Amino acid sequence: MLKKVLIANRGEIALRILRACRDLQIPAVVAYSEADRDSLAVRLADEAVCIGPPQSARSYNNIPAIISAARITGADAIHPGYGFLSENSYLADVCAQVGLTFIGPPGAAIAKMGDKALARKLMKEAGLPMLPGSEEPLPNVRAVQSVARKIGYPIILKAAAGGGGRGMRVVRSDRELLTALPVAQAEAEAAFGNGDIYVEKYLEDPRHIEVQIIADGKGHVVAVGERECSLQRRHQKVLEEAPAPNLRDNVRQTLFKAAIRGAKAIGYASVGTFEFLLAKDGHVYFMDMNTRIQVEHPITEVTTGIDLVKWQLRLAAGEPLTLDQRQIETRGHAIECRITAEDPTRNFEPNAGTITGFLGPGGPGVRLDTHLFPGYVAPPYYDSLLAKLICWGKDRDEAIARSERALQEFVISGIKTTVPFHLGILHDPLFRRGELSTNFIPQYLERMTPRDEG
Ligand code: MV4
What is the pLDDT of residues 362-371, one digit of tens each? Predict the structure, then answer.
């Protein structure tokens, strides 16, 4: 097993990883920035080491600082969490070169899936269902127009180095493309230092459904269930569910098979997630693969009883994947509400500051993953996630009822949060019926703030 793990992250995920280490009886060191000196992860860790100033470029994204922290504390493995360096193939490569275990897939797998155009090509070759589009990045308007003539408008421009919607543009005509392409290229260059753009047919109003997999790198891959992730605002997920509501079982089986096949095709090892778009006609299409543990992993854990972070640690240590697809069963339904330090009444304006009062919900079916405590000061430097409320029920109705109950109990005072926004969504008749799509949140916000009819 691993001897000592360096946790190179902060917030709730640092705590989550620390708890998995404790469950496996592995000592853990938390690497923290000056802004997180008084954090719960630092307080609860076996050891803690400061890796630099608050700005993440100088701390959580600083590879030399993190490698040094592992060396100084005698850690033999690094867990990157999510965000920051979690999908940085260079960190994985450096770890391998200096004899540290990177808790995640090999650098080569991260690099393949991080290049979105290459990932698309590899997954197409593996036989995954794909939307029509370009197999390579396209250099200019003429090249894009030539693809558009074949697949038809609307098309979507995506950054090859991409993710997160940056560099993305929907284009509905040759004329629109003239301005959209340079804008997308400039945005991609600014965000990723790489302006390469590829093209796909644009699918209107799809659902975003992802499949959690676990792989051992030796050809054994299991699908641990899907998650409904359509409820997003500006490419940030707001609320996720497992299983996906109103999903036909043949579609679910298609998704699982595609994810398993995709993971096998690249010899993937560790936990990972395949993202798909689901069209209204029931067709599914590969969209992306994430090579990290994801924020929303707990809804899969509570519906399957599988501890994904423990598996990530065990596999990194070279232990065999003893799960069999036939023994994986999902029970009931889980909903995750992401509580952020944003003010829904002010266009989700972020607000940092002191949590003057805190009382987390509890009771049957409630799991709260959070780093908050009374007196906690939410720093302005990082993402605004405060807590993940994960509620389980025997069915979707019970999971919704328990989520409502838990949100009503939840006290976070001192700063504005999205707790009331989540209560609003859970109350919505369309949500209750499970009629979801990637347009749900934008349309819900429209309904809640009707235009002035003047
Ligand atoms: C798409 C799409 C429709 N058609 N690709 C958004 C984030 C990035 N990972 C890909 N995204 C999309 N790709 C094609 N060919 C629609 C989206 C999309 C979206 C996807 C998932 C969840 C929310 C979304 C919101 C807007 C657009």
Answer: 999 999 999 9
Judgement on whether residues 160 and 254 belong to the same structural domain of the protein = no
- How close is the Cα of 50 to the center of ligand 1, in Å? 38
Atom of ligand 1 nearest to the CA of 133: 15
Edge-first strand order for the sheet with 5-7 is 47-52, 28-33, 5-7, 77-79, 101-102
Q: Are residues 23 and 139 in the same domain?
A: no
Same domain, 12 and 161: no
CA-CA distance, 436 to 134, in Å (whole number)? 29
- Select from 62, 86, 103 the last residue of a domain: 103
* For ligand 1, atom 25: residue with the closest CA: 438
Nearest CA to ligand 1 atom 26: 438
Alpha-carbon distance values, 285 to 133, 202, 282, 439 (Å): 12, 11, 10, 18
Residues 69 and 15 reside in one and the same domain: yes
pLDDT tens sequence across 405-437: 999 999 999 999 999 999 999 999 999 999 999
φ, ψ dihedrals at 411, nearest 5°: -115, 115
Q: Ligand 1: which atom is nearest the Cα of residue 438?
A: 23
Number of domains into which the chain is organized? 3
pLDDT in tens, 244-303: 999 999 999 999 999 999 999 999 999 999 999 999 999 999 999 999 999 999 999 999
11 and 47 belong to one structural domain: yes
- The residues lining ligand 1, judged by C-beta closer than 6 Å to any ligand atom, are 131, 156, 163, 165, 200-203, 206, 208, 232, 235, 277, 287-288, 438
Which residue range forms the structural domain that includes residue 95?
5-103
How many whole angstroms from 290 Cα to the centroid of ligand 1?
15
Output the pTM of the full model.
0.97
Ligand 1 center to residue 144 CA distance, Å?
19
- 202-231 pLDDT per residue, tens: 999 999 999 999 999 999 999 999 999 999
Distance in Å, CA 30 to ligand 1 centroid: 35
CA 208 to ligand 1: nearest atom: 21
**Catalytic positions, written as ranges:** 292
β-strand pairing of 28-33 with 47-52: parallel
Q: For residue 238, how far is its CA from the centre of ligand 1 (angstroms)?
A: 15
Q: 249-281 burial, b if ≥16 CB within 10 A, otherwise e?
A: eebbebbbebbbebbeebbbbbbbbbbbbbeee
Q: Decide: 333 and 288 in contact? Cβ < 8 Å.
A: no
To test the ligand 1 pocket, which listed residue (128, 168, 192, 283) has its Cβ within 8 A of the most ligand atoms? 168
Same domain, 327 and 381: yes
